[in-house]
């Protein structure tokens, strides 16, 4: 179901509504960080989900029934994620596009699996999410960290063969998982790190950490974590005259990194999936989102695509029950704003793939 098809204006649903025929609604949900430190990502998810529901309903709904969207804030917190997942179960939700953080996605997936709810995360990248999935209805429309880790580990092994490499992580599931994947890939290629350690996220002063890196004569720093800490650490590296290259993952693909680091961020490298808004298949949706005052960014588009894939699978299955929809997702190919999407037996999707970017003069540029 392409975006153009979804945007059709004359539909069976509209005719039914005009004639006064009562049609049962299908409750679906998105769940993610809607406020706080990662609220910008939740805002993207919400924009994509709201547009997807609007477009699908305009095109006739799912099996002739309109969708109604529930929005849940998990604050990227495991306990809160379980609480909101149970609330969504109580509301009769049949599908969840979420969660965002791995720390929320994994415990919530247990709840959804037990309740017979299909879950597609548009953001969670840690391999464990699908490698240890609790049921057949757990999928991801996001790349895996080990794929990102292999690319970064190979880069460090090849470009810093005789240099000193530090592997840092912020002790979160995402940050540590990504750093571990990079370390394993680098070690497999014969390169050993000079130092590997975790640091506390949310701090405002990383002078001691950077001093430790300086004493080790570090040439490259791989940081598994998020943009606030990465920006502060890069700023401190410049203050202390440490000319090491900062390398990180997809969480640094946000202008907020530059807001923290300023020009010190120049030269920072990151891996990130091909920018969805640059895909030909996404152009119409990006235009619609931006015309409505939203940004057509990654998680808006991946959330939209997750709902597209689920809706097509439910149409193929003829209902919204877990068993039929899961089989349809496993076996089908879905035309989405990200292009053709398939899922393997693990629940992992074929898109997107990682490429390299470099922060230069306030913007990340493809290398």
Can you offer a commentary on this structure?
The chain has 367 residues and is an alpha/beta fold. It folds into two domains: 3-145 and 276-341, Response regulator (Rossmann fold), CATH 3.40.50.2300; 146-274 and 354-366, Response regulator (Rossmann fold, 3-Layer(aba) Sandwich). It has helices spanning 3-6, 12-18, 39-58, 78-90, 102-115, 128-131, 145-159, 173-188, 207-215, 227-239, 255-261, 283-291, 298-317, 322-331; strands spanning 26-32, 67-73, 95-98, 118-121, 138-140, 165-169, 195-198, 220-224, 245-248, 269-273, 334-336, 339-341, 354-360, 363-366.
Topology of this structure?
Elements: H1 3-6, H2 12-18, E1 26-32, H3 39-58, E2 67-73, H4 78-90, E3 95-98, H5 102-115, E4 118-121, H6 128-131, E5 138-140, H7 145-159, E6 165-169, H8 173-188, E7 195-198, H9 207-215, E8 220-224, H10 227-239, E9 245-248, H11 255-261, E10 269-273, H12 283-291, H13 298-317, H14 322-331, E11 334-336, E12 339-341, E13 354-360, E14 363-366
Parallel strand pairs: 1-2, 1-3, 3-4, 4-5, 6-7, 6-8, 8-9, 9-10
Antiparallel strand pairs: 10-13, 11-12, 13-14
Helix pairs in contact: 3-13, 4-5, 7-8, 10-11, 13-14
Please name the CATH topology of the largest domain: Rossmann fold
Shape: elongated
Question: Can you tell me the CATH class of the largest domain?
Answer: Alpha Beta
- The strands making up the biggest β-sheet line up spatially as 7-6-8-9-10-13-14
Global mean pLDDT:
93
Helix content: 40-55%
Beta strands, count:
14
What oligomeric arrangement do these chains adopt?
single chain
| Uncertain stretches of 5 or more adjacent residues | 6-19
Q: How many domain regions?
A: 2
- Report the CATH architecture of the largest domain: 3-Layer(aba) Sandwich
Order of helices and strands: HHEHEHEHEHEHEHEHEHEHEHHHEEEE
User: Kindly, what is the distance between the CA atoms of the first and last residues, rounded to a whole number of angstroms?
Assistant: 33 Å
Strand content: 15-25%
Q: Structural class, please?
A: alpha/beta
**Estimated radius of gyration:** 21 Å
Number of helices: 14
Spell out the CATH superfamily of the largest domain: Response regulator
Major sheet summary line: 7 strands, mixed
């Amino acid at each position: 179901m392409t975006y153009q098809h979804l945007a059709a204006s004359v539909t069976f649903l509209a005719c039914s509504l005009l004639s006064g025929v009562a049609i049962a609604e299908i409750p679906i949900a998105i769940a993610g960080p809607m406020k706080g430190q990662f609220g910008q990502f939740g805002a993207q998810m919400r924009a994509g989900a709201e547009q997807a529901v609007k477009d699908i309903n305009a095109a006739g709904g799912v099996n002739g029934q309109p969708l109604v969207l529930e929005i849940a804030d998990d604050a990227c917190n495991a306990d809160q994620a379980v609480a909101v997942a149970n609330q969504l179960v109580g509301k009769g939700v049949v599908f969840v596009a979420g969660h965002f953080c791995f720390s929320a996605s994994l415990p919530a997936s247990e709840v959804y699996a037990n309740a017979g709810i299909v879950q597609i995360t548009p953001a969670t990248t840690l391999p464990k999410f699908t490698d240890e999935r609790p049921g057949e209805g757990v999928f991801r429309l996001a790349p895996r960290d080990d794929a990102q880790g292999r690319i970064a580990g190979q880069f460090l092994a090849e470009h810093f063969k005789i240099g000193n490499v530090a592997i840092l992580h912020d002790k979160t599931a995402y940050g540590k998982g990504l750093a571990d994947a990079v370390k394993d890939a680098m070690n497999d290629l014969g390169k050993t790190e000079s130092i590997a350690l975790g640091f506390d996220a949310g701090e405002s002063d990383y002078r001691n950490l950077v001093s430790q890196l300086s004493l080790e004569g570090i040439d490259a720093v791989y940081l598994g974590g998020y943009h606030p800490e990465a920006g502060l650490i890069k700023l401190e590296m410049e203050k202390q005259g440490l000319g090491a290259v900062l390398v990180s993952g997809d969480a640094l693909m946000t202008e907020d990194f530059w807001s923290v680091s300023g020009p010190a961020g120049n030269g920072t490298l990151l891996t990130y999936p091909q920018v969805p808004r640059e895909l030909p298949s996404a152009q119409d949706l990006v235009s619609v989102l931006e015309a409505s005052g939203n940004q057509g960014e990654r998680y808006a588009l991946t959330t939209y695509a997750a709902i597209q894939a689920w809706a097509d699978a439910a149409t193929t299955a003829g209902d919204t029950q877990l068993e039929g929809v899961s089989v349809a997702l496993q076996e089908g190919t879905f035309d989405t704003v990200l292009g053709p999407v398939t899922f393997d037996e693990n629940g992992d999707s074929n898109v997107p793939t990682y490429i390299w970017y470099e922060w230069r003069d306030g913007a990340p540029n493809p290398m």
